[in-house]
Write a structure and sequence with these properties.
The chain has a six-stranded mixed sheet with strand order 5-4-3-2-1-6. It has 395 residues and is of the alpha/beta class.
Length: 395
């Protein structure tokens, strides 16, 4: 398979999944459910017999047409004929649709099957196709023609009666615009691109699960709308989207040397190895998430600075209270006491619920932000953290 053909095939698969999402979003039936690549490219319905079976045909550069010798037409008919042979209920309960970026020229069988044709005539389409099976010399289509001829005429005419062609459909790029249009009221306009990106990521994962399943898996319009609402709420004025996943097996060596000061701060109060790993994870995740928010302009001007000032103010209340308590020891204070109280201060701060926005509740944002501040020596846990850090950095 050459690279061009492989690319075309891959685009076809992606188009199939993307168009399936658009079809579900645009359905007028709120109860509708869709399946991918089980009964057909895409199918609507539940149970063993789909209500609608859809074949999707995508052409990247040359849109072409669905003439009477079109491989797209004959390959699609072969798929449907095989399906009807396997499940006799399809012929009485199912609509068959081919959606294509190509056009159906006037007078062709495809034209007579167009869903919006002024003079739709499935019987005429049958006669044209039957003639092709007799007169065509295309060897590569012999299996298609044999399948057509093998079907009883009454069954084949009934299949075509329930078959519809939707030509000049959106291509893979245009259908992305169609999806964005369908979800345009889920958030402010400036966030629609990001919501669409996350929706498609979720949808492709669902599609992969369906393709890997032995049994047909139907995805409902309600599921899709629920996900859109959930993601849309993350972009509300009192919330922020969380799009940085958990990190596993992060070690301090994963961070540049100038990002390890917060780690030294935790070592001063003898935090255990498991807690250290969690701290590294929180630091890295918060650092990346905050960078994403700034890059995508989701944070208001100086909002991050104001949040950090709140964190520092809260830390100061607790740190100075610890400082006052420890002053009672005078010259009797020991390093063990400083470590114990520093560890208590760290745990107390970890348990606070200081949110950057009211509904952005993921605790790693606060914990990681404190580690970022600790890395800048703006906060600390050990009573003598500032002096200790200066000496450590000299070594």
């Amino acid at each position: 398979m050459n690279n061009h053909h492989a690319a075309e095939q891959m685009i076809g698969y992606l188009y199939q999944a993307r168009y399936a999402l658009y079809l579900l979003l645009s359905s007028d039936d709120e109860q509708s459910e869709i399946s991918i690549e089980k009964f057909d490219d895409v199918s609507f319905g539940t149970g063993d017999t789909p209500e609608i079976m859809i074949q999707l045909k995508h052409h990247v550069k040359e849109y072409g047409d669905l003439n009477n010798a079109s491989t797209d037409i004959w390959r699609t008919l072969k798929v449907w004929i095989d399906a009807v042979k396997e499940n006799k209920n399809l012929i009485s309960k199912t609509k068959f649709i081919i959606m294509t970026t190509a056009s159906a020229p006037v007078g062709t069988a495809a034209y007579h099957l167009k869903i919006d044709a002024d003079k739709r005539n499935s019987q005429r389409a049958y006669d044209i196709l039957k003639k092709v099976t007799v007169e065509s010399t295309n060897k590569s289509h012999e299996s298609y023609y044999s399948a057509f001829i093998s079907m009883p005429e009454t069954i084949m005419r009934k299949l075509l009666e329930d078959a519809f062609v939707v030509d000049k459909s959106s291509n893979i790029m245009d259908v992305e615009f169609d999806i964005k249009k369908a979800i345009r009221y889920s958030s402010l306009p400036q966030h629609i691109d990001k919501i669409c990106e996350r929706l498609e990521g979720w949808w492709y994962k669902k599609a992969i699960e369906a393709l890997c399943s032995e049994m047909p898996i139907f995805i409902s319009q309600r599921q899709v709308h629920s996900h859109i609402v959930s993601v849309g709420l993350e972009y509300a004025s009192d919330n922020l989207p969380i799009d940085i996943n958990e990190f596993e097996d992060l070690e301090i060596d994963s961070l540049p040397s100038n990002d390890q000061k917060f780690y030294k701060q935790l070592k001063l109060i003898c935090i255990g190895s498991n807690s250290l790993r969690m701290a590294i994870r929180d630091y890295y995740r918060a650092f990346q998430q905050r960078a994403n928010w700034v890059r995508e302009e989701l944070l208001f001007t100086n909002e991050l600075d104001k949040y950090e000032k709140r964190l520092i103010d809260e830390w100061e209340h607790s740190f100075y209270a610890m400082q006052d308590d420890l002053s009672d020891y005078g010259d009797q204070i020991t390093e063990d006491i400083k470590v114990t109280r520093g560890k208590k201060l760290y745990r107390e701060i970890e348990e606070k619920d200081l949110r950057i926005r009211d509904r952005c509740s993921d605790a790693f944002v606060m914990r990681g932000s404190y580690h970022i501040l600790a890395n800048q020596s703006k906060v600390g846990w050990h009573l003598d953290f500032y002096e200790r850090l200066k000496n450590l950095l000299k070594d």
